[in-house]
Design goal:
alpha/beta; 17 helices; disordered N terminus
Length: 508
């Protein structure tokens, strides 16, 4: 168990009557989640798994002897290479074959993988991911449930925790594909201000302290956050900010949805070679990876979402949710009566890859370390070319990201001849400049030139809760999100085109 001592909240005048000494997680459930009954067939299935040798004549799945498959072989990079990612890319490294069988011994039999299972996923896979969690986060009293990736997990968490009219908290710029998924459920988003370090704890505290339930409805009880390589800004929360945010969540009884698909992609890490030699890659990487909210979750208020999408392949659609036992049970009940368990092929592959016949957990972390080195090389190339082709114009700047896949590029519109600051906002907190119009014009010009960058307006969260806002977010959409994970040619050609186009735009 990892325990972070309590810290002083950002606002010392919070009504202590609102603070919770004991968390009643049932009060966080949606009406739908409270009304949901366990899937009765799945309940019997779970009981049948407890006693080996039980004769099951109540199931409804085909017998394994009729599966038209008996073996799957996966050709993967050899983890014995010094730099497995580079060896794999260049085609110079050795390859390993890991296999799943229906009738021969392996980590996860295809008899089990291809049969119906429980929504939480198969025990063999959950156990190996729980082991990975324990080595990296050391979470106290948490359990692992599988998902079809973070999008699947998040939409289920929204249903689990939100009712129509509820307000959830999030960063003011965030992954809109996910926040949009909550809107049909009647959930309203409350944006929290950000800076280059990510979500600002004092603004989170201010929002909760000033909340007026008479005019704004129930005070928010859920925070959705992307703490590492925040999408789209690329910012990564410092340990100090994470501790402050967790303490605020503790004080105001907030559930934290920790969406962290970029957690393992960290750069400029000082990985100890002596630790690798003595204890392996998992221990060495755990020492330098950021502290997660899960690692400090002594309340059990964190639902952490991890995914293989960024570190193996996005088409796998396989991830895992780590939460307290109560919320895990409710999430599994939802899955049992909706999407059902994740696909057997993905579970079989992960069981073999992370099992003793494959890479194992330590080999997997060696791959992650090598992957970080390659993405860091691409990030550095991106920033070098950006400085040469774009920053020299004086019309755009960018911070160097610590993790993930994105660079948040600021467009210095104040240098544009048509930039105006004299607009009168039509609503409280509305735009006072023509930033949005100029950025839309630049986006279209880039598109006509053959370059796609994602505009900040795509990710901006507009406050629709009735809260008096002074954020003027429309005046702060002068950013583009760019990715550095493409080929070297894509990076060089794209940024050269960006530099030429932005010069033309500012000359007009």
């Amino acid at each position: 168990m990892v325990f972070i001592p309590s810290i002083t909240s950002a606002t010392s005048t919070v009504d202590t009557g609102l603070k919770r000494s004991h968390v009643d997680f049932s009060r966080h459930l949606s009406i739908e989640a409270r009304a949901r009954l366990p899937n009765p067939i799945k309940s019997i299935w779970k009981v049948a798994q407890v006693k080996p040798g039980t004769i099951n004549m109540g199931n409804g799945d085909p017998h394994h002897t009729l599966y038209p498959i008996c073996e799957m072989n996966f050709v993967v990079p050899s983890i014995n290479e010094d730099d497995p990612v580079q060896s794999w890319r260049s085609g110079t490294g050795e390859q390993d074959v890991i296999a799943s069988f229906k009738d021969d011994p392996c980590a996860l039999s295809l008899r089990t993988a291809f049969a119906y299972g429980a929504g939480a996923g198969l025990k063999q896979v959950r156990d190996v991911l729980a082991d990975l969690n324990d080595r990296i986060h050391s979470p106290p009293n948490h359990t692992v449930s599988l998902s079809l990736g973070n999008a699947d997990a998040l939409t289920k968490c929204f249903r689990l925790l939100g009712d129509p009219g509820d307000s959830f908290l999030c960063e003011e710029f965030t992954f809109s594909a996910m926040t949009n998924a909550a809107l049909p459920l009647g959930i309203k988003w409350v944006p929290i201000r950000m800076d280059k370090g990510g979500l600002i704890p004092s603004d989170l505290e201010r929002t909760l302290f000033n909340w007026n339930e008479a005019t704004q409805g129930k005070r928010p009880r859920v925070l959705y956050t992307i703490p590492c390589s925040q999408n789209p800004t690329g910012s990564t929360l410092s340990l100090e900010r994470r501790q402050e945010i967790y303490q605020i969540a503790h004080d105001w009884d907030i559930i934290i949805l920790e969406d962290d698909p970029y957690f393992f992609l960290q750069y400029d890490l000082d990985v100890s070679q002596s630790t690798i030699q003595q204890h392996g890659y998992t221990r060495a990487m755990a020492e330098v990876l950021p502290r997660s909210f899960l690692s400090m979750d002594y309340d059990g208020r964190v639902m952490r979402l991890d995914s293989f999408s960024k570190i193996v392949a996005p088409g796998m659609r396989l991830g895992w949710v780590t939460s307290n036992n109560f919320l895990a049970e409710k999430l599994d009940m939802l899955t049992d009566s909706s999407s059902q368990h994740p696909h057997g092929m993905g579970q079989a592959f992960i069981a073999e890859l992370l099992g003793s016949g494959g890479w194992g957990v330590d080999g997997f972390m060696k791959w992650i370390s090598s992957l970080c080195n390659e993405y860091q090389r691409r990030r550095d190339l991106f920033m070098d070319v950006f400085r040469q082709k774009v920053a020299t114009t004086g019309f755009a700047t960018a911070e160097v990201p610590q993790s993930g896949m994105f660079v948040w590029i600021k467009i210095n519109l104040e240098h544009h001849a048509r930039f105006s600051t004299s607009l009168t906002p039509t609503v409280p907190g509305g735009s006072t400049t023509n930033t949005a119009e100029l950025m839309d014009e630049l986006f279209r010009k880039l598109l006509d030139s053959g370059l796609v960058l994602m505009p900040a307006s795509t990710f901006a969260i507009v406050d629709r809760t009735g809260r008096t806002s002074v954020s003027h977010i429309g005046d702060r959409v002068n950013f583009f999100r760019a990715t550095f994970v493409g080929t070297d040619e894509t990076i060089r050609d794209g940024l050269a085109l960006f530099g030429r186009t932005i010069q033309e735009f500012f000359s007009f």
